[in-house]
Amino acid sequence: MYDLVIVGAGPAGLAASAYAIRKNLGFLTVATALGGKALYRVSIPGTTEHRVLRADQLLTDFRRELEYLNERYCIGTADRISYHDQVYTLHVRIGGDTRQIQSRMVLIATGTRVRKLGVPGESEFGGRGLGYSALSYSHLLSDRDVFLYGDSQRSVDSALEVALHARSVVLVLEQMGRYHEIYREKLRGAENVTLLENHTIQAFHGDNYCHSVTLKEHDGKTEQINADAFFLELRPTPNSELVAELVETDESGHIVIDTRNRTSAAGIFAAGDVTSTGFEQSLIAVGEGANALLSAYERLMWAV
Fold it and tell me: What domains sit in the chain, N to C, each tagged with a CATH number?
């Protein structure tokens, strides 16, 4: 029986694990890989690495600390969780076997998964001029031409922030129901943003890096747009299915938490992109992971 099982080992899960080690908790971290989204980065031609604010070194230290205590983590997939008599039981697939892990508390740090279009060139240029979070790289895009494709307010906000740095921004925006006109009006005030509607992406092109994208209009015509960086700003899906029947989630599936990273279920905490906080930044996830762990520790210390 563990005091705590941490599910996920991205920025939030690694930070929580590091603090759990410091607090000498009886814990286990379960993840498909150690690093999460911190393992993924986008290289943009001509940018200098020293201008990128990243949590890489901190997360590397957290990961090494956890790897040193190999009894504190297992590489596997948590498929199901049940609750009975104040004990949580996680069913974890490890290779071809299923292991049942019991714990007094659970911390969900499973992040989100990006929505991919599956068009030619997307996989080939992923990480090489083509990424999924423009906000993380906006400060590197000064005097550059940027292409974005999106389907939500997240896409519009990213385009407006990138426009503060870039020479030009082309945003292809999917229809978003009754909110669409509001977003369209907001974009009209940005002189260096071109909004395209009723277009779909056919393919990405390039050599070592992505250099252009082919779009298809609703009437069948095609056009090619060249740019220095490309981002698919589609609304991500939170990996909250594991606890969806145990905790409150919002309309998009993110886990609702309070200021102490507590969920609506006693003994379940959540941190990082899987939550309803709304900020997809590694450093914020690190802080949330630490906050969630300290909240769990407090609960354990005051348990009667």
Answer: 2-113+236-301 (3.50.50.60), 122-233 (3.50.50.60)
